[in-house]
Design a protein that fits this description.
Two copies of one chain form a homodimer. The first copy, chain A, has about 280 residues and is of the alpha/beta class. Chain A contains 13 helices and eight strands. The longest helix of chain A has 24 residues.
């Protein structure tokens, strides 16, 4: 999916909601456990319930990898089921030396190799340019680079000063450097919703890049703050919610309750789109 | 495997060789392609040929992941085949927020979940303490944290100054900080052989920790330099070679040629153990 197509979907659906398919087999509603593939049955119901109010889906790969080969089969079926008008993100946080990153790119971008054909992969920046650029060798695919994450440990290294006068922190250097590797039509950055106070600094460096924003909901970030500081004329945000949607109920009504949660976020997003992009 | 057991194996075998099982299905000898699982058949032959001169095996997970679910099955069979006196490393470079890193830990450390029961996983430090410590919740298992990698991109961020007087670079801060999370009996660091000029600085910060050292062989690092600057009384090094062993020949003699390469490295290591640890 291109930058313009993603922007079009955002304004069409009046939503920049990304649903995180962090599906934990231990949290599934009891009535799904007799299905041949309970994880896929759950994801299918969540997608059916949210596809008109979400513009993106983001399976966190750890949840599938932790189930062994059958987890990868659930992931494949889930990806195949996501409608074509939704952007897809393999939240894998991969990164390795060049030839090896190329294999991770193949794993998520080359359907002839694994069956998977995601639009994008999240990538860790620590190993530098040759760990990231192999993902960009796949035409039309996106890299979503970790910049400033939503967790407590983000303070350990991402906030370290990395220049003599102490004005640039590591996450800012990461963004500035990565901008030389790809433009805003192939590269996004992960910025946690819990870090709303620095969205202004990030928009000063990266005024047009999409930001993938986890941390609204269970992690406590504010959708209002993130939207005010992060929205651009093209949209420019994908705000992820996972647990608050997926596990709104653990009963037979889980899909209806998930839809209600997603609709509430979409309705709030519509007001911010009107306020900040028009 | 404990610190003392690993040290014991190093002096018993007079070797700190780690064989990187970076098995590329496109590089297999032609006569293996008719096997039911050519990747496993290749790995089995490599392990048979090298297990008396290697103390560790390190499958890089990208090579298996890029083959879809059948790749994970080849990985499982390979891990099960590695002799118990060898240390096993899942070179996965994973890392995510706490609850999600816990799932990656389960994927590689909990055989009841996926079948895999590695001794250790390589982990990326960018997301900080809560992305790393969930791997340490598994008793007896090891984290091998990326510090200073062997690739060109290591200069982009790992070498940035991270304190006002510019004496500490990011990789040094990573090592110093991570030392507060675990001791040398649960934590190692990845340091590329191409970075031999900084081994002295690393040993000043981490005099006892094992270092996992890729980059000897195809990447051009010097085993002599790494050994002189990195060996400790307990050994303290695992030096990885992958392509130079695996692909020494692409004919029916590949295992014999792999053994010859591994034996040559082991013989050289024996001289360094004598010179620098006695």
């Amino acid at each position: 999916m291109t930058f313009d197509e993603l922007s079009h979907q955002i304004f069409k659906k009046q939503s920049y909601l990304c649903v995180g398919l962090d599906t934990d087999p231990r949290k599934l509603p009891a009535h799904l456990l007799s299905e041949p593939d309970p994880v896929f049955a759950f994801n299918k119901a969540i997608i059916d319930a949210t596809a008109d109010v979400a513009v993106a889906y983001k399976p966190n790969i750890a949840f599938y990898e932790a189930q062994g080969p059958k987890g990868w089969e659930s992931l494949q079926k889930t990806l195949d089921y996501i409608p074509a008008d939704c952007f897809t993100i393999a939240d894998a946080k991969r990164g390795d030396i060049g030839n090896t990153s190329g294999l991770y790119a193949r794993a998520f971008f080359d359907p002839s190799a694994t069956g998977l054909d995601f639009d994008s992969v999240t990538v860790a920046p620590y190993m530098g340019h040759d760990s990231v650029t192999p993902f960009l060798d796949y035409p039309g695919k996106w890299v979503i680079l970790l910049a400033l994450t939503s967790n407590a440990g983000s303070a350990d290294f991402q906030r370290l000063p990395t220049d003599p006068d102490g004005t640039n922190e590591l996450f800012e250097t990461v963004i500035q450097t990565a901008k030389t590797w790809a433009d805003a039509d192939r590269l996004m950055f992960v910025v946690g919703a819990t870090q709303a106070e620095v969205f202004g600094r990030i928009r000063a460096i990266a005024p047009e890049h999409f930001l993938l924003v986890p941390g609204v909901g269970a992690q406590g970030g504010s959708l209002a703050d993130v939207s005010r500081c992060g929205l651009t004329k093209a949209g420019g945000l994908l705000v992820n919610a996972s647990r608050s949607i997926l596990y709104a109920s653990d009963g037979p009504d889980f899909a209806d309750r998930a839809r209600a949660e997603a609709q509430a976020l979409q309705a709030e997003m519509a007001t911010y789109l009107k306020a900040y992009t028009s």
